[in-house]
Amino acid sequence: MAASRRRRRGSRTTAIAATVAAVALTAGLTTGCDAVNKALDCVQTADAIADSVTDLQQAVENAANDPTQTEESLDAIDKNLDEISDKTDNADVNKAVDDLNTAVDNVRTAVQNGDETPDVSPVTDAAGELTKVCTS
Questions:
Q1: Is 118 left (phi over 0), alpha (psi -120 to 50) or beta?
Q2: Is the predicted pLDDT of residue 105 greater than 70, yes or no?
Q3: Is it the case that residue 41 has pLDDT exceeding 80?
Q4: Are 61 and 116 in contact (CB under 8 A)?
């Protein structure tokens, strides 16, 4: 009877150890997946920002035809930057987002001050840096 109890206790200990190991492994994988998902979110949003920057460049070129396109493109970039900011705690990504926000604000100010063809190269450069940070 004592041998039977020891086997059950040993089996129970093994089962508990296996359960703890499975939970720890699952937690590790979930954490790893969260990091991968955040990186994918960053890349996807950076890609959307790149599209918005292209739209901005075209809007600035066509400002005489439709000046509202520039503002709409700037708004789209702002929205995408908010999405990245909400999804990341990476310092490099946050700095790239801040730099792009500053560049967008500068273009917006130039447009509000009457510049029909503002220099959007700082926006393009900052978007490129964000894409680089998201993919590294």
A1: beta
A2: yes
A3: no
A4: no
